[in-house]
C-alpha cells in the first residue's frame, strides 16, 4: 500500500470519506504535474496527462475497494501516475486551511 494511502487511512479517510475529502479540499490540480485539464477533452475534467482518463477514477475505485494494482491495470496507468495523484491529495490534508499544497 503506498504511503499516501496509508496516511489517508491513518487520518480516518476511507471509503466515501476519501472522495468527500478530495472534493472538499478544493485541490488546485494545476499544481500536480501528472494531470492536465484541456477544454474539449472530457469537458475540461482533470485527466492524467496525455490520456483521457479522469483523475476521479482513482478515488472512485479506491472508494469501491479496488487496489492500486487493479486501478493501474483497468485504466492502463503507471504506479507513478496513481501514486502522484494520491500523494498530492494526501499532502493537501497536511496543508492548513487557506493555503495551497505544493
What this model shows, in words?
- It is built from 5 helices and 2 strands.
- Helices cover about 45% and strands about 5% of the residues.
- A two-stranded antiparallel ribbon has the order 1-2.
- The protein has one domain (about 5-95).
In short:
With 102 residues, this protein is mostly helical. The protein is built from five helices and two strands; from the N terminus they run ααββααα. It has one domain.
Blueprint of the fold:
Elements (H helix, E strand, L loop, with lengths): L2 H8 L5 H9 L10 E2 L10 E2 L7 H8 L4 H8 L3 H15 L9
Antiparallel strand pairs: 1-2
Helix pairs in contact: 1-5, 2-3
Main features:
single chain, 102 residues, mainly alpha, two-stranded antiparallel ribbon, 5 helices, 2 strands, 47% helix, globular
Number of domains: 1
Give the low-pLDDT segments.
none
Task: Tell me the span between the first and last alpha carbons.
Answer: 23 Å
What is the SS-derived class? mainly alpha
Overall body shape: globular
Mean pLDDT, rounded to whole units? 78
Major sheet attributes: 2 strands, antiparallel
Strand order, main sheet: write it out: 1-2
